[in-house]
């Protein structure tokens, strides 16, 4: 158990819909990362937050947005979903933003 | 943007053979980590190296950080089917508080 909690574990939704993925970081970790992993692909970095502020942005679509709340949990919002958005979405947390990251078990999103 | 390149992208070997995975960058990192990911699971941290030239051993796995802290290697001795997975390296920079991941090396160990 990494200490990072992601909910839900599985999500099936229709094209055009909007979903919210939630991540609770390890206790004390200030930084949260979001990654997308399509079938048999590597990790695609989406976005990083550090203590509530956006720190780095990767290949995140305009239809996607995220935020980190004062209690340090984070949410990733995906809207106008397309079939190609089907993937595993991972959240990771780290203490300092550049230190070891601990990953959640992921949310498997299926868009039908 | 710090770019970490991993090679090879894919590696398939027979049980008992040795293998080495490389992680290279033109940037200097304050620390470098290696992770292993199994299908459908989140990556799991294997090791962190922070000192140039550092070598760490974890059972049959040997990790080395380059002297200039720009590259690293992971060597597995006498690989076993349980070593199968996606191996990821990640570099951390304390200058900008970022953690950058390589694309990964998919290792398959055949019984």
Write structural notes for this entry.
The complex is a heterodimer of chains A (112) and B (111). Helices cover 0% and strands 51% of the residues of chain A. With 112 residues, chain A is mainly beta. The radius of gyration of chain A is 13 Å and the shape is globular. Chain B is 0% helix and 55% strand. The radius of gyration of chain B is 13 Å and the shape is globular. At the A-B interface, strand 4, strand 5, strand 9 and strand 10 of A face strand 4, strand 5, strand 9 and strand 10 of B.
Write the layout of secondary structure elements.
The complex is a heterodimer of chains A (112) and B (111).
Chain A: E1 5-7, E2 10-13, E3 19-24, E4 31-37, E5 44-50, E6 53-57, E7 64-68, E8 74-78, E9 87-94, E10 102-103, E11 107-111
Parallel strand pairs in A: 2-11
Antiparallel strand pairs in A: 1-3, 3-8, 4-5, 4-9, 5-6, 7-8, 9-10, 9-11
Chain B: E1 5-7, E2 10-14, E3 19-24, E4 31-37, E5 44-49, E6 55-58, E7 61-65, E8 71-76, E9 85-93, E10 98-101, E11 105-110
Parallel strand pairs in B: 2-11
Antiparallel strand pairs in B: 1-3, 3-8, 4-5, 4-9, 6-7, 7-8, 9-10, 9-11
